[in-house]
Each structure stands twice: as structure tokens, then as C-alpha cells.
From TrEMBL, chain A:
Keywords recorded for this protein, A-Z: Ribonucleoprotein, Ribosomal protein
Protein name, UniProt field: Mitochondrial 37S ribosomal protein
Matching SUPFAM superfamilies: Fe,Mn superoxide dismutase (SOD), C-terminal domain, Fe,Mn superoxide dismutase (SOD), N-terminal domain
Domain Manganese/iron superoxide dismutase C-terminal: 154-203, 271-325
Organism: Saccharomycopsis crataegensis
GO molecular function (one): superoxide dismutase activity
Record carries keyword Ribonucleoprotein: yes
Chain's role: Component of the mitochondrial ribosome (mitoribosome), a dedicated translation machinery responsible for the synthesis of mitochondrial genome-encoded proteins, including at least some of the essential transmembrane subunits of the mitochondrial respiratory chain. The mitoribosomes are attached to the mitochondrial inner membrane and translation products are cotranslationally integrated into the membrane.
UniProtKB/TrEMBL annotation, chain B:
Keywords assigned: Ribonucleoprotein, Ribosomal protein
Domain Manganese/iron superoxide dismutase C-terminal: 127-186, 208-261
Pfam families (UniProt xref): Sod_Fe_C (PF02777)
InterPro entries reported in the protein's UniProt record: Mn/Fe_SOD_C, Mn/Fe_SOD_N_sf, SOD_C_sf
Entries under SUPFAM superfamilies matching the protein: Fe,Mn superoxide dismutase (SOD), C-terminal domain, Fe,Mn superoxide dismutase (SOD), N-terminal domain
Name by which UniProt lists this protein: Mitochondrial 37S ribosomal protein
Superkingdom of the organism of origin: Eukaryota
Cellular component GO terms held in the UniProt record: cytoplasm; ribosome
Chain's role: Component of the mitochondrial ribosome (mitoribosome), a dedicated translation machinery responsible for the synthesis of mitochondrial genome-encoded proteins, including at least some of the essential transmembrane subunits of the mitochondrial respiratory chain. The mitoribosomes are attached to the mitochondrial inner membrane and translation products are cotranslationally integrated into the membrane.
Presence of keyword Ribonucleoprotein: yes
GO molecular function: metal ion binding; superoxide dismutase activity
Length: 335, 266
């Protein structure tokens, strides 16, 4: 049933594409919950101008770039389609980059709702702009007071506590990860999907992506293939020269000797770690994203205000929406 | 008459005091630009508003300086200038965060110090030697401008665009991601690994790696640097008007400063 539904939407989409390819292909995506706040701003997080800067003008620039690249009609279809098609196409890099950025920015914004929706008569003002002095403030230890805006959905709450220890620890990890991004990027909450006979969803992670990066591992698989291609080419070149061939064989002998030594069990580089990660056939399902780019906070919070901005983002997370994104949690194997 | 010994001791002493005075320098501050008061009041005409200038220079520079002070205080880096810290940490992965702030301080200063006080009255032009070099590398000056701005515009994310004079005194335009720095190939950060890279770029990375292992030096020096960081233009222009910002920067470049950076054989 679900399958046929997907096929149905796909074919109708391709019909739409062929129509759309006649003119401008992409437009700024609609986010219902945000678009109705365009004139007022996202209460407690963004002024109207701040929202314009964090979403509308940005989305417009990504859309412009997408349309510039897709004059030949090659980039029809949804953002997801473009991302999953072009992650291995360096020639069409700009398509991947802009589709990915647009998708991520939209995803992050869709996680948010105005603070304090139940008590809408009360105004939640933006915090006063931080100054250089705020960088010197030590961490505030407030053990007794509970954090606000915690998830209410029991399934989500339990899963977070099982994965990170407690909600406080999760919040700290998530916001600090976002804090550590210095240019463009997103901090994500993801559910790990292990591809076995049936898909297994057991553990949640926090991870960062930089610039136009995606939280799934397709791109790192592409890098692996590139690496393999490069090394095969290099080896072939080496073996052409008899002297180099001899040296190469010596090197291989040495390597074989090391095979059983302790050294070989270490993962030496990020590349190797990624290869191993890829080999285990894991995927990450994004659940929540936080936009860490200065574009998201510069207007309303200033250069020093990233921390205040992230605190307000936490307050604005719509946990019901996040909970609705969760896959069915797999039973943990009891040994 | 002072004996040779006492003289040398007093020289040594004065030298030591001056060194220890300098080594007290542990708090980094924002340098004052020549046009600072003008720009603070009026902004940079046709480029940044006064608020935009405050964010891009005063606030961002003070943000990086404070972060750098916090990260280096009490370490053997604390008496070094941001430029020295940048050079010391450029090959050290575990000090990437320190490198970030040091490199940003230098890049931002390098950028702002090559802008004229008012682009409307900008009469500076590249000197004959520089024009000759540019024309021999990029065909024409127009072509160079086009290429420079196009590369800046196509940068995905934050970064810097530089005109470099390499070891052979040839010119190159290079685009650096984030805090990338022109002084060391390994810190050019000119390959964006979050987007699909091609084989040539992968091989470039491999070459950087082998150069680093065999301690190959980099003699590149920057002539002109332009900021493509959000802190510089997003407040005044919005993310979708990057092209406009870059065009305006071009009109504000002080070529008298750039001319002085070009290598001349005396």
C-alpha cells in the first residue's frame, strides 16, 4: 500500500517536473507554521527582520543558485531527490550544495514554534544583546532548578535518557556541539539505523555537519570510492616501473608482517574511521536540527550572542513535531 | 668609565626588561584602524552601514581577540601576537580552535586595512608592475576582476578570497573555506569536503599530506584578501545579496596598500 503510494507520488512528480522545467524550477519552500509569522517574527526567538535574515533571504539565495544551475531541466524534483542523486557528481556540485543547504535550513526551522504558545497574550521579548563581557562569564551551576521546555512525549523522553543519560546531558551536548561550529553548519539529533534483515533503530546520537554536509553516510561512501580509485591508479603507475615495483613489494612484505601487531588495530585517520563506519551499513535518520550559522543569529543576537540564541532555540523546540518524526524503536536485545 | 663587562650586562639587562615587558602581552585587543573614527560614525560609504561596520570589525575582532586570549592564557603561546600564534599552530590539528581565532584576527585585519576611507573618492590604482603581472596571468585586468569576484561568489559557506604571490612570484586567486590562511598550503582549506570533490581535489589533499610529512615549506604571500564571512555582509546585505556586496568591496579596495605588498627586486 505504502509502496504503491510512493510510486504514485513519484510518477506525478516527474510529470510536474516536465511542466516545471519550462520555467523557473524552484521557489522558496513553504513552511506553514513559519510563514504565518512572517510579519511578526517567531516570538521569543526572532524579530520579523531576524526571521527574514535567518530564513527568507537565505532560502532565496539558495533557490536562485539552484535555478541558475538547473536551466537544462536536470534538477527537477524534490530537494531530497537532488541530494540523493548529486552527492557523487562533482560537476554538478553547486546543485548538491544548494539543495542540501536549503533542505537543512528548512529542516531546522520546521523544528521550531513560538515560545509559550498556550499563553499567547504574554510577550516574550528577545534577550538584551550580549557584549564581550558575556564571553568571560563562567558557567552557571544551577542544580536545583529544572530546565524548561523538556519533551513531554514519553517515548522520546525515555529514548533520549537511554541514549544520553538525562535530558540535561542531552541539552548540554546538543547546544555545545552547535556552539563549536564556527562557520556554517548544523547540530543534529539523529537515530542510528542499522541495516539488517529488518531495520534496527536503537540508539540516538548528536552529530555536527559543516557547510552543506548531510547527516547520512552517502557522501562518505563517495569519498571512499574516490580514495579506492586513486590508490588503484597510483598502484598501477607504480608497477610500471621495475625499480618501483621492487620497492613496492618490499613495502607490502613489511606491511604483512605488521598485520598481527597491535598497531594495526588502531584507527589512524578520520578517513579510516569513516570507511569502517560505512562498512557497518549504518544510516542516520535526522530527528532535530539546530542551525549554527551566523546567518541564523547575527541580526537579533549580534556577534557575541550565539549562546543566548541557542538557549532560545532550545526553548522554541516543538517537541511534538520532533516526536512525530521518530521511527519505531526496536526492542533492545536482552542478554 | 664603564667596563666592558658592566656595559654588556647593562645591555643584557635592558634587553631582558624589554623582552619581559613584551611577554606580558597576554590579552589580545582590537587594533585601531586608520579610518576607525570615520567609519564608526558614518560607516564605509556604499559598502557598510555604521552598524554593519561595528559588527564586522569592532565586534567580530573583539570576539576573536577575547576568545584567543581565553584559549592561550597561561600557555607558552600567551606572549605571542595573533600572527605568530597563527604560524605556530598552523600545522597542529589539536590546536585548531586556537588557530581559528588567530587566523581570523589576521585575515580580518588584512582585509580592513586595504580599504579606502570613502569608495566614492577612491583614486587608487594598481601600479604598473602589478598590472603587468595581472595581465600576464589573467589576460586582462577586467578578466581578473571577473574571476576574483566569481570565485568569491561561488564559495559555499564562509571564507576568504585571496590574491596570492607564490614562491615563483606568480599570481594566483585562491578561495579558502572558513579560517583558511594564505601562508601555508595545509591551511589553505581550499577543498570543501562536505560537497562532492573530484579526483584532482582528492589528489591535491594527498599532496598536501605528503608535503606536510616531508616538511615542504610554503613561500606564498598574500597581496589582497576579501572577506566572505557572514559577519561582514549578512547584516547589511542579507544572504541573497552577496554579489552586490562583493561588487562594492571591489570599488573600495585601496590599491596603494596592495601595491606596497607586491614583491620588488631592488
Amino acid at each position: 500500500m505504502l509502496r504503491s503510494l510512493q510510486i504514485g507520488t513519484k510518477s506525478s512528480r516527474s510529470v510536474l517536473n516536465s511542466i516545471a522545467s519550462q520555467r523557473s524550477l524552484h521557489t522558496v519552500p513553504k513552511i506553514e507554521t513559519i510563514d504565518e509569522l512572517k510579519d511578526t517574527g517567531l516570538k521569543g526567538l526572532y524579530s520579523a527582520k531576524g526571521l527574514e535574515s535567518a530564513w527568507y533571504s537565505r532560502a532565496q539565495s539558495y533557490v536562485n543558485n539552484l535555478n541558475k544551475e538547473s536551466t537544462d531541466g536536470v534538477a527537477g524534483g524534490s530537494l531530497e531527490d537532488i541530494i540523493s542523486t548529486f552527492y557523487k557528481e562533482p560537476i554538478k556540485r553547486s546543485l548538491y550544495e544548494n539543495a542540501s543547504l536549503l533542505y537543512n535550513t528548512k529542516f531546522a526551522l520546521e523544528c521550531l514554534a513560538p515560545i509559550n504558545t498556550f499563553n499567547s497574550s504574554e510577550e516574550v521579548a528577545l534577550p538584551p544583546k550580549a557584549t564581550v563581557k558575556d564571553l568571560l562569564a563562567g558557567p552557571v551551576l544551577n542544580r536545583n532548578s529544572a530546565i524548561s521546555n523538556v519533551p513531554t512525549n514519553n517515548n522520546l523522553k525515555d529514548w533520549l535518557v537511554d541514549s544520553f543519560g538525562s535530558i540535561v546531558e542531552f541539552k548540554t551536548l546538543l547546544l555545545n556541539s552547535a556552539m563549536a561550529i564556527k562557520g556554517d553548519g548544523f547540530a543534529w539529533l539523529v537515530v542510528e539505523k542499522l541495516v539488517r534483515r529488518a531495520d534496527v533503530y536503537e540508539t540516538m546520537f548528536v552529530l555536527n555537519t559543516y557547510n552543506c554536509g548531510q547527516p547520512n553516510s552517502n557522501a562518505s561512501k563517495y569519498l571512499d570510492d574516490l580514495k579506492l580509485f586513486h590508490h588503484t591508479k597510483e598502484q598501477e603507475n607504480k608497477l610500471k616501473d621495475p625499480e618501483a615495483k621492487l620497492a613496492y613489494e618490499e613495502e607490502q612484505k613489511k606491511k604483512n608482517k605488521l598485520e598481527y601487531s597491535f598497531q594495526n588495530t588502531l584507527i589512524e585517520t578520520v578517513d579510516e574511521a569513516k570507511s569502517i563506519h560505512h562498512a557497518t551499513k549504518r544510516q542516520f535518520v535526522p530527528i532535530l536540527a539546530i542551525d549554527a550559522s551566523p546567518k541564523a543569529y547575527l541580526h537579533d543576537y549580534g556577534v557575541f550572542g550565539k549562546k543566548q540564541y541557542l538557549e532560545r532555540v532550545w526553548e522554541s523546540i516543538d517537541w511534538d513535531k520532533i516526536a512525530a518524526r521518530l521511527p519505531q524503536r526496536s526492542e533492545k536485545l536482552q542478554l | 668609565m664603564m667596563s666592558w663587562k658592566s656595559l654588556s650586562q647593562s645591555i643584557l639587562k635592558s634587553h631582558i626588561t624589554s623582552v619581559s615587558k613584551r611577554s606580558c602581552r597576554s590579552i589580545h585587543t582590537v587594533p585601531t584602524l586608520a579610518n576607525d573614527s570615520l567609519w564608526t560614525n558614518k560607516g564605509i560609504p556604499q559598502l557598510l552601514t555604521s552598524q554593519g561596520y561595528k559588527l564586522a570589525w569592532n565586534d567580530y575582532q573583539s570576539y576573536c581577540a577575547t576568545q584567543l586570549s581565553l584559549l592561550t592564557v597561561g600557555t607558552d603561546l600567551e606572549h605571542q601576537t595573533p600572527f605568530q600564534i597563527m604560524l605556530t599552530t598552523q600545522g597542529l590539528a589539536h590546536q585548531a580552535s586556537i588557530f581559528h581565532y588567530a587566523s581570523q584576527l589576521h585575515n580580518n585585519h588584512f582585509f580592513f586595512s586595504a580599504l579606502v576611507n570613502d569608495p566614492n573618492t577612491n583614486t587608487s590604482v594598481p601600479n604598473r608592475e602589478l598590472v603587468r603581472k595581472i595581465e600576464s596571468t589573467f589576460q586582462s585586468f577586467e578578466q581578473f576582476k571577473k574571476e576574483f569576484l566569481a570565485k568569491a561568489e561561488s564559495l559555499n559557506g564562509n571564507g576568504w578570497v585571496y590574491l596570492i604571490e607564490n614562491a615563483d612570484k606568480g599570481l594566483e586567486i585562491r578561495v579558502f573555506n572558513n579560517e583558511g590562511s594564505p601562508y601555508f598550503y595545509n591551511r589553505n582549506q581550499d577543498v570543501n569536503l562536505s560537497s562532492p570533490i573530484n579526483l584532482a581535489e582528492y589528489e591535491k589533499l594527498q599532496k598536501y599530506q605528503s608535503n606536510l610529512n616531508s616538511k615542504v615549506k610554503d613561500w606564498s604571500l598574500p597581496l589582497l584578501g576579501v572577506s566572505v564571512w557572514d559577519y561582514t555582509y549578512v547584516y547589511d546585505y542579507g544572504a541573497d545579496k552577496k554579489k552586490e556586496y562583493l561588487e562594492n568591496v571591489w570599488k573600495a579596495i585601496n590599491w596603494d596598500v596592495v601595491n606596497k605588498r607586491v614583491f620588488v627586486l631592488n
